[in-house]
Amino acid sequence: MCAAQSELRCVLFTNRLSPVVPALANTEGLRLVGLVHPTHPIDTADAMRQHISAEIPLFEYHPEQGVSLSAFLRNINAQLLVVYGFQHIISAAILEQCPGVNLHPSLLPAYPGLNPWTDQMKASPTTGGYTVHKLSPHADSGEILARAEFPWPYGLTDLSQIRDVTLRDCGVPLLIKTLLKSTISK
Q1: Do the beta carbons of residue 74 and residue 96 sit within 8 Å?
Q2: Torsion angle of alpha carbons 89, 95, 101, 102, nearest 10°?
Q3: What three-state secondary structure class fits 25?
Q4: DSSP state for residue 167 in the 8-state scheme
Q5: Radius of gyration of the chain (CA)
Q6: What is the pTM of this model?
Q7: d(CA 142, CA 145)
Q8: Taking CA 58 as the corner, what is the angle to CA 115 and CA 185, rounded to the nearest 5 degrees?
Q9: pLDDT per residue over 129-177, tens digit each?
Q10: Which residue from 32, 107, 127, 169 lies 20 to 30 Å from 163 (Cα-Cα)?
C-alpha cells in the first residue's frame, strides 16, 4: 500500500471544516488525497468541498461501509489516515490496510472520548493541549506520538473560541510537525 513517493499521501477523516483541512492540503511533503466525512451534517461536507481541490475525492462515510471504504482507500493509494473530530471508531480491518493518527484535543490520557472540551471546562484545568496518537480500534488509546500544551483557558472564555484558536496555534502545528517526521506508514 505504501508506494515510494516524496509526499505522504494522507486521507483526512473529519466531520468539520477546520484549519486541519487546508494545512493537509497545502503543506509541502504531505498530499491530501481524500476526505472521509459522515453523511450528516452534509452542509459541513459541502463547505469542505469549497476549500479543497476538486480532484480530491470526498467519501461519505457510513460505519457499515467497511468494504467500500477499503476500496476507496486502495483506489487513492492512501498511505496514512489522519483523524480530527470524526467521532467514529475506525475498524481494525481498515487500520490493517492503512495506519493512521488522531489529533485529539486534550493531553491524553486525560480527557479521552467524544467530549474532551466539555470535560476540561468542567474540570477547570490550568493547562490544556493536543495529542497526536496512533489510531487503534479503541477510542483514544493508541501510542502517543506527540503532545503540545497550552495555558488554560488561553485567555478566552467561549468554548468555540478556545477550540478554534488553540487548534490553529497549537493543534495544527503539532499535527503537521508529527506527520512530516512520521515513520508510521514507511
Answers
A1: no
A2: 0
A3: helix
A4: I
A5: 16
A6: 0.89
A7: 9
A8: 75
A9: 999 999 999 989 999 999 999 998 767 778 888 889 999 999 999 999 9
A10: 32
Question: Which domains does the chain possess?
Answer: 8-181 (3.40.50.170)
CB neighbours of residue 92 within 10 Å: 12
Q: Which three cell numbers stand for residue 184?
A: 508510521
Q: Comparing C-alpha atoms, which of 138, 134, 135, 125 is closest to residue 166?
A: 125
Cell of 170: 497549537
CB atoms within 10 A of CB 155: 10
- In one-letter notation, the amino acid at residue 22 is P
Among 101, 111, 92, smallest CA distance to 30 is for 101
Residues in the chain: 186
Grid cell for residue 150: 497550552
Helix (H, G, I), strand (E, B) or coil at 22: helix
